[in-house]
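User: Continuing from earlier, I have the next pair ready.

Assistant: Great, send them over.

User: Here they are, in order.

Assistant: Folding the first of the pair now:
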Amino acid sequence: MSLSGHQTANPVTTEWLTPPYIISALGEFDLDPCAPVNRPWGTARVHYTIKDDGLSLPWFGRVWLNPPFGRVSARWIKKMADHNHGIALLAARTETKLFFDYVWGVANKVLFLEGRPHFYNARGERAVFNSGAPIVLIAYGRRDGWLLKKSGLKGFCAKVS
């Protein structure tokens, strides 16, 4: 069972929305470069979807990033690290090359969320099963590190660089 399948061998969708309590705790974002096409709530002032190819478009302002999970995540996190202004959500696979290349020594802070959150489908319905893996929020830039620490989200926040 995979994280992207939310503990099911036959996922109904590949688009899972960040729980709204996470977004609201982190403050306003200017851009979500990989927002779901259909979404019951916004995550930023501007949304790029798969139809826009947010990876190839310019990023601006404070970015919220919940990238597609799997091998393609590294390309998104690299762009976030280069942009250096925003917060990303990833599976806490801290031993991977992605973390060593674009998180450790690069990001400002990480927040390991307590428990495993339940994501939502495009209709705004909470998934029956949790994410299936621990989740970490990664802050790029000093101000975003401060906002992450002050978010009130339950978990353990650590300074990275």
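And the other member of the pair:
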Amino acid sequence: MTGRLVAGVDGCREGWVAVVLSEGRFHEAIVARTLPGFLHEYRNVRAVGVDMPIGLPLSTPGRRADGEAKTFLGTRAKSVFPIPPREVLEEEDHNRAVKIAQRLIGHGISQQTHALRKKIFEIEDFVSGTRLDVREVHPEVSFRGMNEEPLGFPKRAWDGLLERKRLLAREGIKLPEPLGGEAGRVQTDDLLDAAAAAWSADRIARDTACSLPSPPEIIAGQKVAIWY
């Protein structure tokens, strides 16, 4: 493998799906059960964009990154989910987590949001133990950055899928048809999200990426931002 390698990673039913770019062009798509399992093979990537929160809020009102991402996305703002405080996600039992959330932020959290805790803490553990440049991204923020205006359709709509494929292709990221292998069986929106995350990772590697907020917010000594 040669050239500037970066990776975009998105959670999927199978674990994680990663799109690897070389010099800004598609190189490979991989499915891995764990994030360290994927990055063990790609230890020389210059940057990794992960569609998962990195840096949890300690209390209300939450992270500036999420609020600024909503503003940036405009009509697609609903794709940004508010991140519960750390104390909520550290609770393994959903019912108890709901009670903690009600106390801290005035409302409960869904089982779907609570279920993300496993991947959130997997990322957190990995980031704390690696020298790789791993940063939080949000695919819809990445697509908005490519398009320079809010996208017209939801990502799971047919026109939304085509809209996002066209944007990736315009940036030089063309996914093979068929893709083949295990990655070819991953849900379409997860694969496109990983490709958008890779686009952001390539901008990070070239030091041309933007962040929301800018500069990043500091939470518990950690820089917290969504990059694109």
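Worth noting for the second one:
Strands lie at 5-12, 15-22, 25-32, 47-50, 134-136, 211-219, 222-227. The mean pLDDT is 93.
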